[in-house]
Design goal:
Layout: E1 8-11, H1 20-27, E2 34-36, E3 40-41, H2 49-55, E4 71-76, H3 80-92, E5 98-102, H4 107-111, H5 122-135, E6 142-149, H6 155-165, E7 170-177, H7 189-197, E8 202-205, H8 211-221, E9 225-228, H9 230-234, H10 238-245, H11 258-273, H12 282-294, H13 309-322, H14 324-327
Parallel strand pairs: 1-2, 1-9, 2-4, 3-4, 4-5, 5-6, 6-7, 7-8, 8-9
The structure holds flavin mononucleotide.
Flavin mononucleotide is lined by residues 12-17, 38-39, 74, 101, 103-104, 145, 174, 205-208, 228-231.
Length: 333
């Protein structure tokens, strides 16, 4: 999935956002090298293969979206044995790569010994990575995703070393601590320090909202591997722009309007669930809200009361005829 010397742009896992239809849609850009699935939580028992196949339908089609984007399976949990058994089940279900989540800040997850809480225990990070690495065939890459620390940015140095000691093939770092949540600023510099000192590739992640952020992140980290999440939705031209910078793909961003993008999401959702199930407007509003907060969608007010997907698309269509600026998703520079 990730080649040490080949630049890569990765679609971040975002629980409740980057589900299979969204991964299909993002895969169609040709900008991403692979996507990471939303986390599946390992609690009291190993996750069975049927759950992996239900939650990550790409496993039934060679581990790729219908648009050809490889999908890595992400698991989260604090018990090395259960994590290893879950990873084995994932591989038997069709997984071609496993990522381990050590970054989730959600209190429920952290209270149950998963996600970012493990950042406080470097030895446990190492044990979990080693257990999963040993359990799955050598041909299956195992990676880890960390935040900089629980409260202290400096935690990253020990934790990153432990990920390597456990045998991971690469490491993704979200440039914040658990205590920082999603609040700006991000701290990209430590990622650069880790990258220079580790023998495995390091993927830089966090707050790359526009091309200018990407350039600064590249200057500060020296990475050739990047992951973006929220900005792939809020600024739909950005994946194309970054892919061009990284010489992954020179495909120009299509001249999408928001309404076209939402229609594409509906089409991919129909593909997965069948067209008979009525589309809820919730997912569409979630996307436009992200774009309104962080991107270039200027009038969330016009759609926020829509009661169905159809009504929402109608509102958007009317608005796009009235004010073209409202409806295009040109890049935010
Ligand atoms: C709603 C939401 C859900 C997320 N779910 C996951 C997840 O399932 N697994 C994970 O490793 N990170 C998850 N993240 C963190 C993202 O993968 C990413 O590290 C973070 O959003 C910073 O990147 P960005 O600034 O490019 O969005 C989530 C983030 C958000 C906003």
């Amino acid at each position: 999935m990730l080649h040490p010397n080949r630049p890569a742009l990765i679609l971040a896992p975002m629980e409740g956002i980057t589900d299979a239809p969204m991964r299909d849609l993002q895969g169609a850009t040709g900008a991403f090298s692979y996507a990471v699935s939303e986390f599946l939580r390992v609690v009291a028992h190993p996750i069975p293969g049927r759950v992996f196949r239900r939650e990550i339908p790409e496993l039934l089609q060679g581990g790729k979206t219908t648009t050809g984007l490889p999908v890595q399976v992400q698991i989260l949990g604090g018990d090395p044995d259960l994590m290893a058994l879950s990873a084995m089940n994932a591989v038997q279900a069709g997984a071609t790569g496993i990522d381990i989540n050590f970054g989730c800040p959600a209190p429920t997850v952290n209270r149950h010994d998963g996600g970012a809480t493990l950042l406080k225990y470097p030895d446990r990070i190492e044990a979990i990575v080693r257990s999963v690495r040993t359990a799955v065939p050598d041909s299956i890459p195992v990676s880890a995703k960390l935040r900089l620390g629980w409260e202290d940015v400096e935690d990253i140095y020990e934790n990153a070393y432990r990920v390597v000691a456990g045998g991971a093939s690469w490491l993704t770092i979200h440039a914040r601590t658990r205590a920082q949540g999603y609040k700006p600023p991000v701290f990209w510099k430590p990622i650069g320090v880790v990258r220079e000192s580790l023998p495995i590739p390091v993927v830089a992640n966090g707050d790359i909202w526009k091309l200018d952020d990407f350039d600064r992140c590249r200057d500060e980290t020296g990475c050739i591997h990047y992951m973006i999440g929220r900005s792939a939705l809020s600024n739909p031209s950005l994946p194309y722009q970054i892919a061009e910078r990284l010489h992954i793909s020179g495909r120009p961003a299509p001249d999408w309007k928001w309404v076209d993008l939402l229609q594409e999401l509906i089409r991919y959702t129909d593909l997965h669930r069948g067209p008979k199930i009525a589309q809820s407007p919730t997912r569409l509003k979630q996307w436009l809200k992200l774009a309104a907060n962080f991107g270039n969608f200027t009038d969330f007010e016009a759609v926020k009361m829509a009661r169905s997907a159809t009504e929402l698309l109608e509102c958007l269509d009317i608005a796009s005829q009235a004010t073209p600026k409202f409806a295009t998703c040109a890049s935010v520079e």
